[in-house]
UniProtKB/TrEMBL annotation:
Residues 7-218 form the Cytidylate kinase domain. Signal peptide: none annotated. It is an enzyme of class 2 (transferase). This is Cytidylate kinase. Its EC number is 2.7.4.25. The gene is cmk.
Length: 229
């Protein structure tokens, strides 16, 4: 079978990557890979074993038997670790608080990048949307379509705090900003690399953002002209 059309989407937290990618994949009949979920799953596994996540060696040791599974069907999205469904648990603040420390370990990145490439190559759909921080630059620099999804800091904070209850908007904003700052030291997802198309969703609602990405996929497939507006 032909290899799938790969759509790479990067961007900061709260830009809409996960939700927009999943909805776009659903509408196009593509697979969907949430790479951040893998970093979160490893962070979860470390916490479950009381590993000191500030110790790179301790984190690296967890890769040996990291038993992780992720669904790439956008209609059946799940993440499991050791057979346990952790789809919701990996979003908990305690995981979010340590995920950047886990993700900055080079051995962790090399391990997961290789895994993501295997998952992409194994996709049986006509396309796969892969989202994260380093997809356009490291995981799939040869992707047919590469997008940097941005939004103003204010819009991103607003979207995130609308999702999280029980924490003040101010706390959410601070945590998001410090995680973006930590992650930016490892990969640059604030500036579009050469050939990467920026989609600024600040003034787009969710459906408009999905429509913008769908249009770009149509162009990449050679099925539409480049939108001029
Ligand atoms: O959805 P949200 O923006 O909260 O984060 P995520 O996409 O679930 O990613 C969680 C964390 O994983 C990020 O804060 C990064 O530390 C890391 N990550 C990464 O290093 N590289 C990726 N390609 C994706 C995520
Ligand atoms: O994955 P990432 O952290 O980039 O963002 P997300 O978790 O997919 O999106 C954060 C929230 O923003 C979700 O509740 C989306 O529905 C919302 N969103 C929005 O309100 N307007 C957009 N144009 C895009 C996303």
């Amino acid at each position: 079978t032909a290899s799938p059309l790969v759509v790479a989407i990067d961007g900061p937290a709260g830009s809409g990557k996960s939700s927009v990618s999943r909805a776009t994949a659903t509408s196009l009949g593509f697979d969907y890979l949430d790479t951040g979920a893998a970093y979160r799953a490893l962070a979860f596994a470390c916490l479950a074993r009381s590993i000191d996540t500030s110790s790179p060696d301790a984190v690296i040791a967890q890769l040996v038997d990291f038993d992780y599974e992720i669904g790439i069907d956008p209609a059946d999205y799940f993440v499991s670790v050791g057979g346990e469904d952790v789809t919701d648990a990996i979003r908990e603040p305690r995981v979010t608080a340590v995920v950047s420390a886990v993700a900055r370990v080079p051995e962790v990145r090399a391990y997961l990048v290789a895994l993501f490439r295997q998952i992409i190559a194994a996709s049986a759909k006509s396309g796969i949307i892969v989202e994260g921080r380093d997809i356009t630059t490291v995981v799939a620099p040869d992707a047919k379509l590469r997008i940097l999804l941005t939004a103003s800091e204010e819009a991103r904070m607003g979207r995130r705090s609308a999702e999280i209850s029980g924490e003040s908007a101010e706390t959410t904003a601070k945590q998001l900003a410090s995680r973006d700052a930590a992650d930016s030291r490892v990969v640059d997802f604030m500036n579009a690399a050469d050939g990467v198309i920026t989609v600024d969703s600040t003034d787009l609602d969710f459906d408009q953002t999905v429509a913008a990405v769908v249009d770009l996929v149509r162009v990449a497939e050679g099925r539409a002209e480049i939108p001029t507006n």
